[in-house]
Structures are given as C-alpha cells and as structure tokens.
Task: structure prediction
Amino acid sequence: MTSPAPNGKKVLIVEDNAMNMKLFVDVLSVNGFTAVSTTDGAQALSLAQKERPDVILMDIQLAGIDGRDVTAAIKADPDLASIPVIAVTACSMKGDEDRFRACGCADYIAKPFSITNLIEVVRRHAGLGSSETKE
Result:
C-alpha cells in the first residue's frame, strides 16, 4: 500500500498517551497529513505558534494541565485563534461536549473513536471535505 500524496495540511497532536500518539501520527500520515506532536500541554502553545497547524487534536486529560486550559490559551492568541481545536477525550458524560466547546473547541471526538470518524472530522476542519480513509 502506498501513502497518498501529501495534502499540504498540518495537524498538531497534543496527547500524553504514547500508544494514542502513535496511532494518531500513523493514521494521519497515511492519510496525507503532516503530523506534529507533543505530549506536553504547556509546550502545545509554543509549538502551535511555531508550526501554524491547520488543525489541532487536543487530549483534554493531559498530565499536569487540563487540555481546556491549553485550548483557551490558544484561542486567546490572535495569531492562533482561527485554528480549529478538536477535543479528543474519554470524557463523554452529559454536558462534556458543551464544556469543550465553551473553552474554544470546534469539535469533539470521544475515545474510543473510529479511525474513519477521526479522519472525516480532521479533513472537514482542515477544509478538505471527505474522501476515502486509509486505516
């Protein structure tokens, strides 16, 4: 199987679980995205400023800092505010999605997630529409 041509879109992944991070990087890469990653929520803001991703995947339950706080800091930066942040989390209680959107998340993906749904959501927020997902 060959990887598709790069689509020119960059995704910043903020995830402190090594297995989840590898899954995100592998799936995004095979679907034509450039993946930039950090396990450190505090580093996410400076990495976003440096890399200027098209989309940010944000784990909400990060070690040491809440992903909602990181998202709020990204949204408070005028140079980064327009970048869609997608919450990726195991939190799926009633009202959680509203709380994630209130801090600035454009969308929400509950763990465990389907790869097809992940790619569809990322493609939509990156302005690419939908297409065949490679798993």
The longest strand covers residues 10-14. The CA atoms of residues 60 and 66 lie 6 Å apart.
